[in-house]
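Entry for the shared binder. Reason: the reviewer on the internal report wants the predicted structure included alongside the sequence.
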Amino acid sequence: MIKYYYPDGSHCYRALHTAHAVFRNEAGALIARAEKPDGSALYEFEITGFELVVAGERCT
C-alpha cells in the first residue's frame, strides 16, 4: 500500500499496483500519477509526500 499525503493535510491509501509515477512538475510541486479505481484511465494529483506502508518510510 501507498499512503499519499495531500497539501491540505489529509491522506489516502492506494494499492501499490495502481501507482504509476511520482515526479516534480515544472513548478516544483510533487505530483503522483495513478490509475482510476475502475482502471479506465490515469490521473495526476498534487501530494506533499508518500509512504510505503509496508516499509514504514516516508518519502518526500
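Summary line for the report: The first strand starts at residue 2 and ends at 5.
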